[in-house]
Amino acid sequence: MQIVVDSERLSSELATLAGFTHVEPSPDGTAVTRVVFTDDDLKARAWLKGLAEAEGFSVREDAVGNTFIRWEGTAPELAAVATGSHIDAIPHAGMYDGTVGVLGGLEAMRALKRSGVKLRRSLELVLLTSEEPTRFGIGCLGSRLISGTLDAARADGLKDLQSKDDETLAEVRAAAGFIGPLAGVKLSSDYYYGWIELHIEQGPLLEREGLPLGIVTSIAAPAGYRFTITGFGGHAGALLMPARKDALCAAAEIVLSLERHALATGAIDTVATVGTCEVYPGAVNSVPSKVVLQVDLRDTDPVRREGVIAAVRKDCDALQVRRGVTITEEIVNADEPTTSSAKIVALLKSICEENGTVYQTMVSRAYHDTSFMAHVAPVAMIFIPCRGGVSHRPDEYASLDAIALGTRVLATAMSRLASE
After folding, report:
1. How far apart are CA 139 and CA 161, in angstroms?
2. pLDDT tens track for 33-60
3. Does 304 share its domain with 357?
4. Is the same domain home to 170 and 307?
5. Which of 18, 58, 312, 379 is the most exposed, fewest CB within 10 Å of its CB?
């Protein structure tokens, strides 16, 4: 069976999808902002569903907007083989993150259909809702609900970070046309026979080594924390230095504490980031009275990850005494690492070897929806190189040859699994 990927069509569709955005043009590349449930997101979803329906694929949506595009096999009662990713994008991001997996997955299904092959198991492409935490403060919202790792009631109560009216997910999704109880989104633990996600690497290793493909053997475990530091504010001129309880100075020590303890593990897989810092009242002539830090801590070893945050907590205890501030911590999420299916990894390796494609097995230090789809299927991921290893920026770029190769390997792997 010869699988022919229509790379020109795929390139055109990636460009069309990138047009569903409202951002200023960037001299660095194609800037994309597509936040979940905005008009741009809903228009992009409608366009994608149109592409699927034009191929004769069936489409269904669940209560949070996860979209399932299905090509039925000769034994539709069997568990399907699935792929998918996301199309939401953080502000001023690029045009390849997530979208390569969605449109590449669609093209893989179309290529197999064009080949005339008859598969026992159905194939399914899943557009997953809100992989990015931009709007509701937690990443992989749709796949968390599919996996049952996020409580439905808690999810519906999540605040819309872009709303001035304190709207919740329940209100926002209903306004977008997605209704019904979120408890019904969860799928059974054996719902899919296999899941493979195609994605840009979002790192520099493949390009640095001159390799065309990566096969992901594990995905690092992310944890999110929110630290609130409360001090004592006042006029920048009148509040004398000896009397200050500056919340921002204390926050700065927490940032450095995270960096210090992450480095101290000696493990390249331990990474800590403070991505946002909200300062109150936020005036140049006012001593900060409160600071909120959003912390992202990741590791392939959850025990090592917990050791870092435990050390930071000790530093916070000392800080409260020394600086006279109050520090509270909220755990936003603490997820487990994901191990890829040995069977699917072996299958991907064999496909590459049959076709003379050099590959590298690797760890994904960025987390993906696959981390949570692992609760409903054996999983693996295919990585393709991206220029300079950059992502979440307008200059994010993957070559058409790389995308086409990843799509061919994906299509081949899905067809073999679906033949079992």
Report:
1. 13
2. 999 999 999 999 999 999 999 999 999 9
3. no
4. no
5. 58
